[in-house]
Amino acid sequence: MTISNNHLPNALSIGIMAWNEEASIGPMLASLFQQTVIARLAAANEGCEVVCLANGCTDGTVGVAADFFARMEREHPVRRGLSARVEDIREPGRNNAWNRFVHEFSAREARYLCLMDADIILNQPETLELVLGELERSRNLGGASDSPRKDIAGKGRLSTRERLSIAGSDLTGTIEGRLNGMLYCLRSGIARNLYLPRDLGATDDGFLKAAICTGFFCAPSDPSKVVSVRGATHLYKPYLSPRDFLNNQKRQMIGQTTVHVLITYLKGLPESDRANLAATLSRNDARDPDWLKRLIGAHVASPRMFWRLFPGILGFRWRRLYHMRGRRRLTHWAAAAAGSVVTLIACWQASRFLRRGGGSSAYWPKTARQTILTATHMSTK
Predict the structure, then answer these.
(1) Is the separation of the CB atoms in 8 and 78 below 8 Å?
(2) What 8-state DSSP symbol labels residue 3?
(3) Contact, 317 vs 171, CB < 8 A?
(4) Can you tell me the mean pLDDT for 203-223?
(5) 240: exposed, middle or buried (C-beta count within 10 Å: 0-12, 13-18, 19+)?
(6) pLDDT value at 108 more than 90
(7) Which candidate, 2, 147, 175, places its Cα nearest to that of 72?
(8) What rounded mean pLDDT belongs to the chain?
(9) Which domains does the chain carry?
(10) How confident is the model at residue 152 (pLDDT cuts 50, 70, 90)?
(11) I need a surface site. Which of 8, 128, 248, 254 has the fewest CB within 10 A?
(12) Is-contact 352 323, C-beta < 8 A?
């Protein structure tokens, strides 16, 4: 079902990444359609479109989203400024869905493109308005996102695992220029000069941040070009079991290694290729779908210890702990220590996997909840 009665030019195009999210996409859409940004744009005679990117779904995701859109067509109070549809993409894969949304499905006239996961909850009606407003006020910004909040944070009594999980998230608070992969908004001109290679994995936010902050790898990095907007939040379910946490860390190590290899490769290209990054990367994928996998193979084949897959693996949590003050440094020490041990194990597993010829395309796609949280992909879920 499609909401098609939008008679206003779209300023904002929202793409929802959905892979077998039948159970979670309904509550997510309910929170999305309560966002104040829809009415704010309509009041300025501008529209907002929502595109559910159902990629390779084998459950009822498409039907649930279509039914919700049909109800919104009848009931939403700002129907004049709103359009929504489901794109049923047969080929699974987050990167393919991202590329098709940015370069094919999103409204050509949209000034801003927003990507979000299908299993989060926008717990504040002003979240998207705050994120979009920051981009409108600050012309230097290329991308903005909100801050993820674990849904256990409001519980009265937390278990030991839950306390460690919350403390682990706090360790990301000192990162400058964060781009949260669960929900972010980009200027459309910047987004459309970007393309996600097939084997990049689920660490797209780190690659996007690096490209934006360096002007497509043509200038020194400027972290102020992306921002996590104060006061804008969403909720997500964290990993709490040791097995799930370790598997997620392994995915992060594989993904961050891939990003490191890709960025190193791009920095060696002629500036004209970097300036036209989307064309360069899409051309590479078209000519040789395995080009990035081979670069990863060459990287891990060179003699190096497993904790040196990419720079700064072991020290990042301790550096963040150092920037904390007072009692928080003491209370978060256990989370930093536990996370570092798990990271070391995950590095060993990731190194073995990659040395055996495993590539990102063999390890992804994963559900939207398994997307990495921050631009460095080193946060603790």
Answers:
(1) no
(2) B
(3) yes
(4) 93
(5) middle
(6) yes
(7) 2
(8) 83
(9) 1-119 (3.90.550.10), 126-381 (no CATH)
(10) low
(11) 8
(12) no
